[in-house]
């Protein structure tokens, strides 16, 4: 029963669209009065990134000035990164780009980075793709410092890996330095990939399985999303929280459960005009 008591140790934030200047994300966080947020370190659709030391300096200063706790800031890595790519030069470019983004995270004094697992592009088997992902992650962890690589579950769309907890667990089991690996559960993706989260009972079943298979110690972030598509649609279509095939129960369940305290809970919902009311609603339930 204790798990269902209303608790206040929740850090709800927003994923901001791409800003050329990193520091502008901190200004937005202040505007929304949140201490958790997510953002793109560079243009998510470009390989080449130019980082500006002044921008990093401003980001750090503003976090300090606004008293924003770095523990709840989780950048989203570039969409181009595919750590399971069957194409050798794309795989190398992906590894290099993620290393670069982790380097910037360290400069920004951030501890987490969110990433999609990878895509086999229908050119190799899922198992071979998972092997590429494991090798890429181990190499990147060995050649970077501090930051925890947070793997996000996929909606089961296209040829993306990570549409079930078993695949994510297989990857974690093969990571040599487990202090540098974590998981982000996206509610909309889980629903689309075939995990029913529409009732308290189904939420219990899903997160019990998560705890047994992977463990809450690896849960480093949550993406709160509704779904514009039906259960098991295998489509990645985010919606607002309160107008979705997913329903509302999952959000009550997360807000009243101790296991989601002290991690960033990030809205990736589709309508920025609703963000404030969605946050207020979550804190009210
Ligand atoms: Zn997400």
Short structural description:
This protein has 285 residues and is α/β, with parallel strands linked by helices. It has helices spanning 23-31, 53-65, 88-107, 126-142, 165-173, 187-192, 200-213, 249-255, 275-284; strands spanning 11-15, 36-38, 112-116, 148-152, 181-186, 219-224, 226-227, 238-239, 264-267.
3D architecture notes:
This protein has 285 residues and is an alpha/beta fold. It has a single domain, classed as TIM Barrel. The protein contains nine helices and nine strands. The chain has helices spanning 23-31, 53-65, 88-107, 126-142, 165-173, 187-192, 200-213, 249-255, 275-284, and strands at 11-15, 36-38, 112-116, 148-152, 181-186, 219-224, 226-227, 238-239, 264-267. It has a seven-stranded parallel beta sheet. Strands 7-8 form a two-stranded antiparallel sheet. Helix 3 packs parallel to helix 4 and helix 4 crosses helix 5 (165-173). The longest helix is centred in the middle third of the chain and has 20 residues, at 88-107. It is globular and about 45 Å long.
Number of strands: 9
Radius of gyration computed on alpha carbons: 18 Å
Mean pLDDT: 92
* CATH class wording: Alpha Beta
Principal-axes geometry comes out as globular
Write the layout of secondary structure elements.
Elements: E1 11-15, H1 23-31, E2 36-38, H2 53-65, H3 88-107, E3 112-116, H4 126-142, E4 148-152, H5 165-173, E5 181-186, H6 187-192, H7 200-213, E6 219-224, E7 226-227, E8 238-239, H8 249-255, E9 264-267, H9 275-284
Parallel strand pairs: 1-2, 1-9, 3-4, 4-5, 5-6, 6-9
Antiparallel strand pairs: 7-8
């Amino acid at each position: 029963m204790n798990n269902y008591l209303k608790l206040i140790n929740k850090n709800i934030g927003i994923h901001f669209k791409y800003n050329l200047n990193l520091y502008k994300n901190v200004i937005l966080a202040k505007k929304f009065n949140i201490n958790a947020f997510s953002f793109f370190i560079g243009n998510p659709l470009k390989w080449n990134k130019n980082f500006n030391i002044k921008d990093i300096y401003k980001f750090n200063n503003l976090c300090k000035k606004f008293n924003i706790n770095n523990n709840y800031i989780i950048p989203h890595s570039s969409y181009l990164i595919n750590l399971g790519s069957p194409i050798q030069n794309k795989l190398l470019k992906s590894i290099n780009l993620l290393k670069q983004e982790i380097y910037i995270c360290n400069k920004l004094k951030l501890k987490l980075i969110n990433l999609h697992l990878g895509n086999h592009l229908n050119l190799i088997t899922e198992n071979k793709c998972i092997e590429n992902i494991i090798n890429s992650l181990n190499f990147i962890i060995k050649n970077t410092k501090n930051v925890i690589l947070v793997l996000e579950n996929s909606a089961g769309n296209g040829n993306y890996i990570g549409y079930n907890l078993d695949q994510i667990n297989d990857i974690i089991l093969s990571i040599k330095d487990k202090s540098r690996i974590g998981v982000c559960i996206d509610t909309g993706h889980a629903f689309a990939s075939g995990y029913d989260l529409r009732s308290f009972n189904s939420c219990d079943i899903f997160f019990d399985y998560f705890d047994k298979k992977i463990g809450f110690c690896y849960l480093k972030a949550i993406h709160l999303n509704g779904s514009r598509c039906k259960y098991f649609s295998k489509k990645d279509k985010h919606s607002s929280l309160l107008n979705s095939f997913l329903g509302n129960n999952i959000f009550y369940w997360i807000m009243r459960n101790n296991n989601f305290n002290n991690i960033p809970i990030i809205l990736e919902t589709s309508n920025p005009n609703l963000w404030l009311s969605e946050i207020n609603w979550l804190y009210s339930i």
